[in-house]
């Protein structure tokens, strides 16, 4: 059986990793072994970041809604409880947009939530 040499595939794999490591500092963009470690770490951090972004935005929306609720004389948890009891199913992203853009509509939502309690 003929001998198979793996240089072509190895070079392809190395080039792929080094291309991903472009812009890294020092040996992290030049030497394969170190670049491979840096790329694996950066991929893990990218994955974690995609999950964290969802958390961060939810926190931001809740903070905005809470601030708007305080201006209308109600706290966040009571407001959300009142909305749930009144049958208004609106996500926090939309509630925060309403709180920023249209304060009169948000005040009506607060009144509806207070009436449901």
Question: What would your notes on this structure say?
Answer:
By secondary structure, this protein is an all-alpha fold. Helix content is 76%, strand content 0%. It has helices spanning 7-20, 32-71, 76-86, 92-101, 103-116. The protein is rod-shaped. The N and C termini lie far apart (82 Å). The model has no long low-confidence stretch (mean pLDDT 95).
Provide a brief overview of the structure.
With 117 residues, the chain is mostly helical. The chain is 76% helix and 0% strand.
Helix amount: over 70%
**Looking at the structure, what is the overall shape?**
rod-shaped
Decide which structural class fits the backbone. mainly alpha
Given as residue ranges, the uncertain stretches (5+ residues, pLDDT < 50) are none
Total helices: the number is 5
User: What separation lies between the terminal Cα atoms?
Assistant: 82 Å
Largest sheet: none
Overall mean pLDDT score?
A: 95
Order of helices and strands: HHHHH
SS elements, strand count: 0
- How large a portion of the residues is in β-strands, by DSSP E? under 5%
Radius of gyration: 26 Å
Task: Explain the layout of strands and helices.
Blueprint: H1 7-20, H2 32-71, H3 76-86, H4 92-101, H5 103-116
Helix pairs in contact: 1-2, 2-4, 3-5
Keywords for this structure?
117 residues; mainly alpha; 5 helices; 76% helix
């Amino acid at each position: 059986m003929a001998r198979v040499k793996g240089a072509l595939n190895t070079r392809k794999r190395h080039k792929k990793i080094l291309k991903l490591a472009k812009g890294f500092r020092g040996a992290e963009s030049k030497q394969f072994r170190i670049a491979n470690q840096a790329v694996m770490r950066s991929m893990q951090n990218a994955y974690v970041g995609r999950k964290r972004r969802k958390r961060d935005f939810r926190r931001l929306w809740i903070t905005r809604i809470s601030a708007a609720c305080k201006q209308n004389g109600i706290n966040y948890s009571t407001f959300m409880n009142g909305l749930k009891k009144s049958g208004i199913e609106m996500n926090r992203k939309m509630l925060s947009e309403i709180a920023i853009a249209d304060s009169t509509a948000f005040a009506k939502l607060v009144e509806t939530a207070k009436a449901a309690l």
